[in-house]
Fold this protein.
Amino acid sequence: MAANLDIYPLESKIKLVCADHNNAADMLLEILHAVQAFNRYIPESAYQIIADCLNLSRAEVYGVVTFYHDFRQKPPAKKIIKLCQSEACQSMGSVQLKADIEKGLNSDVAIETIYCLGNCALAPSALVDGQIYGRLDADQLNTLIGGAA
Ligand code: FES
């Protein structure tokens, strides 16, 4: 991969990423992850560029981007809280916790649903800045959100 992609316009960066993956259609997921890694999301303008590089249709690229929830189609919030909504966490109030927290959020923070962080014994759980937290209540979650909320 090119050492510093920042100096290139988006279209060139995407073409470099595709070329780095041999313009191989079976590398589509890796290419989408790479695009999202340097751009924070996958803009609609990227679909046709990637499709052309991989000899796919735009619809095929769009279909993959929209199938996987971790691919973002818009710029993300500055802070993303992934709050578990699976059974153990639901039984410990994560649905209500999510509703309570979302009331006071500004656009710098987003609450995303995730299903099981493997921290069920400490439900309700959330992933914040790559760290898993358990036995959360609204006050603790607001503290983790910090100054962004
Ligand atoms: S159900 Fe929430 S961490 Fe497993």
Observations:
- The beta strands are 79-84, 109-114, 126-128, 131-133.
- The domain at 79-148 is CATH 3.40.30.10 (Glutaredoxin).
- The mean pLDDT is 92.
- The CA atoms of residues 125 and 134 lie 4 Å apart.
